[in-house]
Amino acid sequence: MIARREFITLLGSAAAWPLAARAQQERNRRIGVLVPAVADDPIWQARLGAFLQGLALLGWTIGRNVRVDT
């Protein structure tokens, strides 16, 4: 038979488990970019590349902690 102390420990661990799992997930941000030209325009591609490079320099990683929608 399970002891009272073991039962309370098991119950407390089960209640705390979802909170610990959520705390480990990094928030994924979404950035929307309005394009004033067609998406395959070379000038637009250069500007988007510079923007993404700037994000990378600030520590953002596309697909990991930021998503860019065009």
What does this structure look like?
- By secondary structure, the chain is mainly alpha-helical.
- The chain has one domain (4-69).
- Helix content is 51%, strand content 11%.
- The protein has 2 helices and 2 strands, in the order αβαβ.
- It has a two-stranded parallel sheet.
- The radius of gyration is 23 Å and the shape is rod-shaped.
- The mean pLDDT is 82.
Largest sheet: 2 strands, parallel
The best one-word shape is rod-shaped
| Low-confidence region ranges | none
Strand order of the largest sheet: 1-2
Helical content, roughly?
A: 40-55%
Q: From N to C, what is the helix and strand string?
A: HEHE
Number of helices: 2
Q: How far is the N terminus from the C terminus? A: 60 Å
Mean pLDDT: 82
The beta-strand count equals 2
The domain count comes to: 1
Rg (C-alpha, Å): 23 Å
Strand content: 5-15%
Structural category is: mainly alpha
Q: How do the helices and strands line up, and which of them pair or pack?
A:
Elements: H1 4-23, E1 29-32, H2 42-57, E2 66-69
Parallel strand pairs: 1-2
Outline of the structure:
By secondary structure, the chain is mainly alpha-helical. It is 51% helix and 11% strand.
